[in-house]
Each structure stands twice: as structure tokens, then as C-alpha cells.
Amino acid sequence: MSERKTIGIFIFDQMEELDAVGPWEVLRWWTLYFPDDGYDVLMFSRTGGTVRCAKGLAIVADTSMDELGDLEILIYPGGQGTRAHLLDAPLLDWLRVRRARTPLMTSVCTGSLVFAAAGLLHGRPATTHWASLELLGEIDPSVRVDADARFVDDGDVVTSAGVSAGIDMALHLVARLAGVERARQVRRGIQYDPAPPV
Prior knowledge:
198 residues, alpha/beta, Rossmann fold, two-stranded antiparallel sheet, globular
């Protein structure tokens, strides 16, 4: 069996809960029930330990940035906590280094703002939460902002719109990595069939 590949979800204080937990549910269901596909998923934070999310949920990281091994995919959630990241030079430098050795960089919601601040979206199509579309274009005017997409797949970078759109993006990742039928199995497994009641 080939070497297992790791998907890492970065978690941080004031992160929007569903931005991380939505993709986690999709990807963990997949990796738990189909281990032979060869992927694992974990959550990591800057220093390890617990982060406190935007609405109060506490999440314990599996590991820290310093202890993190190689990733096949990095997922960067959004939320109010990303605002401080836009000016966090060490964090932006860390992202650039990770970009050079991570095949697929993905973001949910305003995580794409941090990608833009790090220069990872220069000249690329991308999206974010509807309330931050203008800001995305201001951070890097070369970004081709897609105001309508649930997610934008630009090959080695995938960005998604806000909050629940991260679930759609994660299912898309399963389809990319293991095929459409596998993604449908995961979708059925988590009983994700959105039909908003309002």
C-alpha cells in the first residue's frame, strides 16, 4: 500500500466553527469508512492545544504547526480570527513556505483573504464569503473574484464561499481524490441533501 497522505485543517481562535467542522465531517467520514483510499485528516493549530471559535465552541488540535508533518492538502477556514492574520507576517511567511511543499491549498470563507494577503491568489480566480468579496479584491486587485460560485477550483488552489460552502468544497475534494461515486457515498453517509426550509 502506498504511503498515506494527510489533509490538515488549520484551526485558530475566533474561527467560524462550521468552516472547519463542516469539511472535517465530510473528510473524516470518508477517511474513516474508506481507509484504503489512503488519506487521513487532522486539525492543527499554531501551538497545539485548544482554540475558542467565534461562537464559543472549543476545539482541541491534534498537533501544532511546529510538529506538523507534510500535507497533501491544507484547509484554511475563515471567521473573525482571520482579520488579525492579514497583518501577521510570520504566519503569512509560514503559509508561503507551506505553499511551496503542499500540493493543494484550500480555504473556506474568509480564509481566502489570508491566502490573498500571502500572495497565494495573485492573478487567480477565487471566492470568499459574500460580505467579504470586495475586501478580497482590495487585498489583491489581481484576484479574479467570483461572486457567484460556491467554490472555485483553480487546480492547486481551491477557495470556497462562506460557512456551509465548505461542505460542498470538501465533497468536491473527495470527488477529485477518490472519484464522484465515492463523494456520493460520503454525501449519503452524512445525509447531506440541502433543501433550505426558508
